[in-house]
Amino acid sequence: MCKIFCTIFAGKLPRMKRFITIVACALLAISASAQDYSTYYANLPVELTAPQLPNIPEYTVNLSDFGAVGDGITDNTEAFSKAISALNKAGGGHLVVPAGIFLTGPISFKDRMDLHLERNAMILFNPDKKMHLKSSKVVPGITASKRKDISITGEGIIDGNGEWWRGVKRGKVSDTEWNAFKRMGGTVTPKGDLWYPFNLKSFENIADTPEAQEKMRTHMIRFTDCERILVKGVTIQNSPKFHLVPQRCKDVTIDDVTVRCPWNAQNGDGIDLMNTCNVLIVNSTVDVGDDGICLKAGAGESGVKAGPCKNILIENNTVFHAHGGFVIGSEFSGGMEDIVVRRNTFSGTDTGLRFKSAPERGGKTEGLWISNIYMSDIQGEALVFETSYADRPVGRDDAVAAESDVFVPEFTDIHISNVVCRDALIGVKAAGTIEMIHDITLENCIFFYTEEAFRIDNPGMLQSKNVQYITYR
After folding, report:
1. Is residue 418 part of a domain?
2. Which domain holds residue 335?
3. Rounded distance between C-alpha atoms, residue 321 and residue 316, angstroms
4. Which tens digit of pLDDT belongs to each residue from 298-319?
């Protein structure tokens, strides 16, 4: 076990450190070989294929051996770069992050690499925005582009320091929180309704205006055009924008991951799949400021070119606060095909099952099967279809959905069964035309509502069988 590592380093490490490292390496190898997700694919309503797992060598290095210091003060960007370079030269392997707080700038993955965070390890991205600039663009905290066989594993935390990036709406925070933001410096709008992290006391701006800098917020972890990805066990929190974004990727497994940020974090999406296929999301917990588990497939011709979200299984997850527990949209011109969402719990989300889009960004859904969903304390609709959705960035209240006859959303071939919802404002809402919402089946569902059972523009949109709408008497 770990023959390459032991051969190179056995004579160079103290005996105890050598023993601990060898044991850690062996455990990593055993953990990787023990992965078996085939049981999730039994008794599916449509045939799906399990994603391939990454193939990562047993070779292991420890971040501390490259000069890293986990004191929360020392910048470890160079240490990460050196460690990843050493793994790459060896043909790949595991980079172990030990206990401590490791402040760093952006981290870029190579092929056949596992970033493994031990218990009590934290990767904390530097709040100095200049460290994230590359050719006048802000790069995510962790990136991988056109890579194969990559993973993030362990029991540690990855923190994006998002409070130094995000605008804050006055109406979404208490007086205590509002004053804490102002103590950081920043800029309050003349109306007093927004705070921007612009002109901070401790860090320089990276744009000329608060609005321009707001648009430069980026995701925390983004994998683009990659194959065979595993994210397992870690906590991902406090992103400047979206937290975990596989984009145009193939074979993605997300297991036992916690994604969290303040409930009022603007654009604080949890897990967003974009034009990605062969995906398994299981046993994870999401508690965020925007959409929880969200599928997107681009807008217009570029979305069609990038392809659909396809062959996806989402099971045994819990979503606490989010704008939607499971969401499709708003942009999905590339389409949604062969997706199963089952045995998930949503507690305290704004909406439960949320399908949102608008002309110029819509596509077609085919073969979506949603079952055994358990919801409680839903602030809006348990199930909602929106076909005139409009983005409303921080500082703007005037966004209007496009009026167009191209890339019109078509929500169809969606089968929803065995949903139990206790306390939603509205049970079911469907807003749009019959051409945009049709052939949706609801079966064996219970919606306990507090204001309205359903609000459906055309009764032919949904076909219901044994669906109960109940409220207080």
Report:
1. yes
2. 291-473
3. 17
4. 999 999 999 999 999 999 999 9
